[in-house]
# Entry
Amino acid sequence: MKRFLTIAALAFAVLTASAQREPKLTIKAGVGMTSIVGADADTKLTIAAKAGVSYDVKLYKGLYVIPELDFILKGCDPDGSGGILLNNDKILRMTYLQAPIMVAYKFGLKKGGNIVVKAGPYFACGLFGSKGAISGWGFYKEVDVFDKTYGARRFDVGIGTGLAYERDHFTIGLEYSRGLRRLDPDFRLFNQTFGITLGYRL
# Structure
């Protein structure tokens, strides 16, 4: 009986400590819109999606660094004449493995929960995508979206921002990201995404 009570007391203590511990790991997914923007872009928005994880590293009081790792779907709905990887009858898809590093500040609310404001750079590697049409130079050819000769650059760098509300184990937020590296060295074309995310905090 004493052994049972001891085990029960230890289990209760572990559960209590776990409940009081601030969640750090977040599993999240989201949907939104994506496009290719820039002076040489002539595209429309299309659907974006993402799924990934993030981890809160507390620096001081409400200040955090939050590294993330996401699978994110980008691209555009072409709407113009010519241009690298733009074709009037195809939606271009590019799937990236993306690693944002966000600096965040959490504002505690009197009624519970936090408002989270974050911003920081991201680094992305293109994994795969749809076929793209090369046009605008008097010829037409379909290539992989990350083709070394005619396709978009596989590696992207940009900046992202976000605003979220978190409470207990749940979070909901708005996110925006903009590429800073040209998708093609000869054209001013950049990735852009924005959307809403839902997450569960562990």
Q: What stands out?
A: Residues 11-19 have pLDDT under 50 and may be disordered. Helices lie at 2-20.
